[in-house]
Amino acid sequence: MLYRRLGKTGLQLSALSFGAWVTFGKQVGRTQARELLALAHDRGVNFFDNAEVYNKGVAEQVMGDVLADLRFPRDSYCVSSKVFFGSAEHPLPTQRGLSRKHVMEACGQALQRLRVDYLDLYFCHRADPDTPIEETVAAMDTLIRQGKVLYWGTSEWPAEAIHEAHRIARENHLYAPVVEQPEYNLLHRERVEQEYAPLYAAYGMGTTIWSPLSSGLLSGKYNDGIPADSRLAQPGYEWLREGVLGEGDERLGKVRALQPIAADLGVPLTQLAIAWCLLNPHVSTVMLGASRREQLEQNLDALELLPRLDAAIVERIQGVIGAV
User: Fold this and answer.
1) Tens digit of pLDDT for each residue in 260-299?
2) Closest C-alpha among 100, 52, 185 to residue 193
3) I need a labelling partner for 27 at 20 to 30 A (CA). Which of 139, 181, 296, 312 fits?
4) Catalytic residues
5) Where would I find the beta strands (DSSP E) of the chain?
6) What is the reported pTM?
7) Which domains does the chain have, with CATH numbers?
């Protein structure tokens, strides 16, 4: 396994990590989760990502039960949660958002579900227009000083809001966010490569990127329709299906054009897509979301491809995906 520092912090995360979004508690039950987490940890993965909203807290319960069952040394892995959307089926105003009340209570609930004493990373899952940023920064600072959280970050925040969080933290001697968790892949690049560019130099922020396969689109499995066992076919994820396939032929055309590059390298397109993300030095870790053992094994093997992505290959890829 390759390890990278989380921005300018001293925390080293595995370059490939494992997340519970969409899968845990739906496609993946406890037995499968145990197999997947055991495999990931055995292969050197030391970061497991989750959120209060993932299957309304069930994903955290499944992960927590499995981590307790596997009895990994607590200092051998990092676990995260995210706060904003809430875990209630129909959350009341006090059960969602980034108010001090919800941030503090949601952290306690995440600790209970994940069965840990502290969260290594705690993310504000979206910016909250109804809560002053200074209130959220202060709440996160409190959690860190209480020992319930080690590092905090943002997820899909506008760059200007992150700048503001840093200004508030600096002026009030509070802990600032050290990481952002954005979507990043061959088909979705602008925010990471352009909007966030000033953040890396100004604050040394790291990124824990999600959806390196664009929710499976970059696996090529949707080129001829939606397989019945895929996440896009799951009830309740119509919004995801629309988001992934909404642009239709243009995105699928790029996927089809990338496949010969992967074929020339003798690897699946999934490995090419994952390894490409790691070419960006500001990517601290690429979060995988596999639901089957063989799928996770294949994705983890993407690290072996990384040294082979020379300038000529990168130029071919760039020719397909174009400029940002």
Assistant:
1) 999 999 999 999 999 999 999 999 999 999 899 999 999 9
2) 185
3) 181
4) 54
5) 3-5, 12-14, 16-19, 47-49, 78-83, 119-124, 149-154, 179-180, 206-209, 283-288
6) 0.92
7) 3-213+280-304 (3.20.20.100)
